[in-house]
Design a protein that fits this description.
This is Capsule biosynthesis protein. One of its GO terms (cellular component) is plasma membrane. α7 runs antiparallel to α10 and α8 packs antiparallel against α9. 15% of the residues are buried. By secondary structure, this protein is α+β, with helices and mostly antiparallel strands. The protein is 64% helix and 10% strand. Strands 1, 2, 3, 4 and 5 form a 5-stranded antiparallel sheet that branches.
C-alpha cells in the first residue's frame, strides 16, 4: 500500500518554505574566448616557438670548468721559526678582487681573442641558424665583451678567495682552449702585480742608495782634490812633524842661550864666540818664528797656515764619514727590502685544471622551457586578474 502524499501548502500560507532557484546551464561567453585566446597567445604559442627553436635550431654547447685562487707564500725567518711564529701560506683577498674585476674586463677579452679568435669560435653555428646563442663575427669589441659575459660564468667566494669559471663553446676542444688561455692570462696578470709590488717595495730604498752613493763619491772626490792641491796625505801627521821640529828648535834655543850666558860670564865682550853665539840664537829665533807661522801660531801669517789646512781636512773627513755611514745605512735598508721581497711570493694556484667535456650540457633546454612556461603562466594569470579587476570596477 502506497504512502499518502504530503499535504499541499497553499501559496502564501504559514507553512511556506524558501526554495533555492535552479542555476541555468553554463554557456560560453565572449570573455571565455578572450581567456582562451590570451592563454594561447601568452603561454602556448611562445612555448611552442621556444621549444621549436631550442630543439631544432639551438646548437649544442660544451662546458669547460676550472677553479683557482691567488696565493701568497711567506717564508718566515729563522728567528720566527725558532719562536714558533709560522705562517707559510695565505690568500690575498685584495688580489682576488682585482683578478675578479680583470676577468670581466675588456682588456682580458681582447687578449684572449687575439690568442684564440673568440669571434670564430663563438660564431661557428652561424647567426642564420642560431641567432640567440651564436655571436655575430662582425660585432664590435663591446659586443664581444657582452657575449663573453654570456659564455663565461664566474662564481667568486669572497670568504675563501676561490674563483670558479665555466667556459662555454660549441666544440669541447674550443672550450678547453679558451679556459687554458684565460688561466694563462690571469697568471701573467698576477705575476705583473707581484713585479709591481716588488718594484714599489724597493724603489724608495734604491733611490736612497743611489743618492747616498753619489754623496759618498762627491765627498771622496773633494778629499782627493784637497790632498793633490796641498801635496798632503794626512795633515795631522805633518802637523805632528812640524810640532816636533818646533820643539827641537826651542830646545836648541835654550842650549844656545845657556851657552851665551856662560860665555858672557867667563869671557870678555870682544870674544868672537859671543858674537857667534848671538848669531846662532838669532837664527834659531827666526827659524822658530817661521815654523810657528806655518802652524798658524804667529801674528804675521804667510800663505795657508797648517791650522787652516787641518781644519779644512777635518771638515772633508767628517763629510766623507757621514756619507759612508749614510751609504751603509741605505745599503742595509735596500738589502733588507730585497730580502723581504724574496720572502713573499704571489702566484695563481689552480686547484681545478681546465676540463674537457664529453657531452653537451648546454643549452639546458628542459630547464629553459620549464622557466619559460612558469613565467608565461604567471604573466597570463596576472593579465587575467587585471582584466577582471578592471571589469568588475567598471
Amino acid at each position: 500500500m502506497s504512502e499518502p502524499a504530503p499535504p499541499r501548502v497553499p501559496p502564501g500560507g504559514a507553512g511556506v518554505r524558501n526554495v533555492k532557484p535552479v542555476a541555468k546551464p553554463a554557456r560560453p561567453r565572449r570573455r571565455h574566448f578572450f581567456l582562451f585566446l590570451s592563454f594561447l597567445a601568452v603561454v602556448v604559442i611562445p612555448a611552442a616557438v621556444a621549444s621549436f627553436y631550442l630543439w631544432t635550431r639551438a646548437a649544442d654547447q660544451y662546458a669547460s670548468n676550472l677553479a683557482f685562487s691567488v696565493r701568497t707564500e711567506e717564508q718566515s725567518s729563522a728567528i720566527e721559526l725558532l719562536g714558533g711564529i709560522t705562517e707559510l701560506s695565505g690568500s690575498s683577498s685584495s688580489d682576488t678582487d682585482i683578478l675578479y674585476a680583470y676577468l670581466t674586463s675588456q682588456e682580458l677579452v681582447s687578449k684572449v681573442d687575439a690568442r684564440v679568435d673568440l669571434r670564430d669560435i663563438w660564431s661557428k653555428p652561424g647567426v642564420d641558424q642560431d641567432p640567440i646563442f651564436a655571436f655575430d663575427p662582425d660585432g664590435t669589441i663591446e659586443d664581444l665583451q657582452s657575449h663573453w659575459e654570456r659564455k663565461i660564468s664566474i662564481v667568486y667566494d669572497s670568504g675563501t678567495g676561490l674563483i670558479d669559471l665555466e667556459v662555454l663553446a660549441f666544440d669541447p676542444q674550443d672550450a678547453l682552449h679558451i679556459a687554458e688561455v684565460v688561466l694563462d692570462e690571469c697568471g701573467e696578470m698576477i705575476n705583473g702585480l707581484s713585479q709591481l709590488a716588488r718594484e714599489d717595495a724597493i724603489s724608495f730604498t734604491r733611490e736612497e742608495l743611489e743618492s747616498s752613493l753619489e754623496r759618498l763619491k762627491v765627498a771622496r772626490k773633494n778629499l782627493t782634490q784637497f790632498r793633490n792641491r796641498n801635496q798632503l796625505v794626512d795633515p795631522a801627521i805633518d802637523t805632528q812633524n812640524q810640532m816636533g821640529l818646533l820643539t827641537s828648535l826651542q830646545a836648541q834655543l835654550a842650549e844656545a842661550l845657556i851657552e851665551y850666558d856662560l860665555l858672557q860670564d867667563t869671557t870678555r865682550e870682544s870674544d868672537p864666540r859671543i858674537a857667534q853665539s848671538e848669531r846662532r840664537i838669532e837664527a834659531i829665533n827666526e827659524r822658530i818664528a817661521s815654523e810657528r807661522r806655518k802652524l798658524g801660531l804667529g801674528d804675521d801669517e804667510e800663505g795657508d797656515a797648517f791650522a787652516d789646512i787641518v781644519g779644512e781636512f777635518e771638515g772633508l773627513m767628517v763629510d766623507r764619514e757621514y756619507a759612508e755611514r749614510a751609504y751603509n745605512g741605505a745599503l742595509a735598508a735596500h738589502d733588507g727590502a730585497l730580502a723581504e721581497v724574496r720572502k713573499q711570493s704571489r702566484y695563481l694556484a689552480a686547484h681545478v685544471k681546465p676540463t674537457l667535456a664529453q657531452k653537451a650540457e648546454y643549452p639546458q633546454r628542459t630547464k629553459i622551457m620549464g622557466l619559460w612556461l612558469l613565467f608565461a603562466f604567471f604573466a597570463w594569470a596576472i593579465i587575467c586578474l587585471v582584466y577582471y579587476s578592471v571589469r568588475d570596477r567598471s
